[in-house]
Amino acid sequence: xxxxxxxxxxxxxxxxxxxxxxxxxxxxxxxxxxxxxxxxxxxxxxxxxxxxxxxxxxxxxxxxxxxxxxxxxxxxxxxxxxxxxxxxxxxxxxxxxxxxxxx
Length: 103
Prior knowledge:
Layout: H1 3-14, E1 18-22, H2 32-43, E2 49-52, H3 57-67, E3 74-77, E4 80-83, H4 85-93, H5 96-102
Parallel strand pairs: 1-2
Antiparallel strand pairs: 1-3, 3-4
Helix pairs in contact: 1-3, 2-4
């Protein structure tokens, strides 16, 4: 990965306290896993940004290396990778996601 791409990924993550890299956008998710994470974030009242990885193949592939996480969606909070759909749903079911987002 180039330094330029690494910086672009870091800058994108830093745009919002809660950033979701997903297929599609919050208004029109383009896969069930992305839709599930958007639904959970909306349910807990989180303010979040999204990035449509389908519109940027270079970033989509680079983010997999950057995060060491091979699938999408990827949720970041305060610049830190939280995980994908299963982890987000699990944290929500345990009541931990809302606490994390309010911190």
